Amino acid sequence: MSTRENASTFAKGLRVLECFESGQRGMTMADVARLCDFDRATARRLCLTLIDCGYLVQNGRALELTAKALAIGAGYLTSHDYGRAVQPILDRFAEELDGEIALAVLDGPRALYVARSATSSARVSFGFSAGSTLPLAPTAIGRMLLAQLAPDALDARLAGIDLQRYTDRTETDPTELRARIRETAANGHCHVENEFEMGASALAVPVGQIGGVPAALGTTASVNAMDDPATRNRVLDILRRAAMGLGYQRGMGTGA
């Protein structure tokens, strides 16, 4: 088998694993074939290989990820010092916010949460955790990630994004979306209301880079809680101080 064929097979195996990112239960080999656009024989062969390697387990017809899949993610978190340097900062500023705060990085057409902290009194929570993903276009943290790209890189990224309408307030016009991203870059923060979830208001600020890709900090609250400009300014101040703390701890702005 040639190098190209080996790489192709490996890439297909990764696509199978990506089918389980949403946490959907009861997924079968037929579901994997459909989601990956593979024929059933290919999907079966790849699933059986991942079962043999310990990354999937089969109960009846249903497939599930095993805990072994966590080890790869744990290696990423350890190498970037999340447990010692990042999580304590997020915990401290979540308490100051009396809400939730999340750190995300740009991952293809989405924002990927790499750390999060929330108080028990957080008024708005989507149940996200490290490893959860958000669309880029309708979210504050997503637009803040896009705003850190060079113009050519931004155009290429937007060309690959499906501008899905999540609410009747979601901006789906490419020209207007670019204008809002440029405004985000100029302001150094992003504020989005009701575009991803009605009743939710989100703020985000840039952090710099983690592993060579843009990173951002964000928080979500109810629209009513963010109506007052003084409240928004207070939240922005907390997010900016948290971002500075992360930068000082890890040199994120230098691409660490």
Automatic annotation (TrEMBL):
Keywords: DNA-binding, Transcription, Transcription regulation
Top-level taxon of the source organism: Bacteria
Protein name: IclR family transcriptional regulator C-terminal domain-containing protein
Annotated InterPro entries: GAF-like_dom_sf, HTH_MetabolicPath_Reg, Tscrpt_reg_IclR_C, Tscrpt_reg_IclR_N, WH-like_DNA-bd_sf, WH_DNA-bd_sf
Domain IclR-ED: 68-252
Species, as recorded: Psychromarinibacter halotolerans
Organism taxonomic ancestry: Bacteria, Pseudomonadati, Pseudomonadota, Alphaproteobacteria, Rhodobacterales
A Pfam family this chain is assigned to: IclR_C
